[in-house]
Amino acid sequence: MAIKKKIYFASDFHLGTPTHEKSREREDRIVRWLDSIRDDAAAIYLLGDIFDFWFEYKTVIPKGFIRLQGKLAEISDSGTPLFLFTGNHDMWMFDYFRQELGVEIYREPIVREFSGKKFCIGHGDGLGPGDRRYKFLKKFFNSPLCQWLFARLHPNLGFGIAQGWSRSSRAANDQKEQFLGPEKEWLVIYAREVLEKTHFDYFIFGHRHLPLDIQLAPGIRYVNLGDWLHYNSYAVFDGEELRLEYFTEREPTHFSSAVDRKN
Q: What is the CATH number of the domain that holds 117?
């Protein structure tokens, strides 16, 4: 049996959009990817927007996604640590995944050290300059009052409203993001600001829906994980090197983004 030494990172599955059929195809593909990495994964980090919408009532969760949940439970039960971040689409995760699947939940970026390398890991929403409207809405949606009010709605109504929001999202409309350039990418700006105070070797985020690998300084990189709507991209750290790869149903292939390793 292979030694489990690799750390895997993926984000932005957006299960539930744009249609049930396409979501199911994507879910099956993600499950096959998890099967392909489980034997050598020392840990798996899922960095948010796993679902296009998620809300946990006290006794009700959204219908579907059972294949992914079953695979995560299987991997967790085998002893491989799983870490799940909330994103801007699935911030209303509470205790279900922790209690039922043994998955740790994070709502803010965290710091980890692997093989002497320091990582800043998070979904990426609400970081960096600008977007004050979203930052206000995020604070409101994360408030106990907002969550309490939404929980008062019958699930049929609550999930119906959420599906209406989802249909207007960039994921539902199949919109590919465009690279803004290293001076305008807000997560790059955020990473550079953090580096003024604290050293990191790697910044790993999702949210942008673009596989990006940008050198911020010698030996320091910002990596965005892309998404599984268009790229099937993820990152893997083998103890020596962090690589962006994409799942091709065969062997993992190194992914060279449009700005791979550029300043």
A: 3.60.21.10
Q: Tens digit of pLDDT for each residue in 51-78? A: 987 778 788 788 889 999 999 999 999 9
Whether residue 26 lies inside any domain: the answer is yes
Domain of residue 125: give its range: 6-254
Q: What is the model's pTM?
A: 0.85
The string of pLDDT tens digits covering residues 160-204 is 776 766 666 655 556 777 777 778 888 999 999 999 999 999 999
For every residue of the chain, which 3-state class applies, written as one string?
CCCCCEEEEECCCCECCCCHHHHHHHHHHHHHHHHHHCCCEEEEEECCCCECCCECCCCCCCCCCHHHHHHHHHHHHCCCCEEEECCCCCCECCCHHHHHHCCEEECCCEEEEECCEEEEEECCCCCCCCCHHHHHHHHHHCCHHHHHHHHCCCHHHHHHHHHHHHHCCCCCCCCCCCCCCCCCCHHHHHHHHHHCCCCCCEEEECCCCCEEEEEEECCEEEEEECCCCCCCEEEEECCCCEEEEECCCCCCEECCCCCCCEC
C-alpha–C-alpha distance, residues 134 and 126, integer Å? 7
- Number of neighbours of residue 219 by Cβ within 10 angstroms: 9
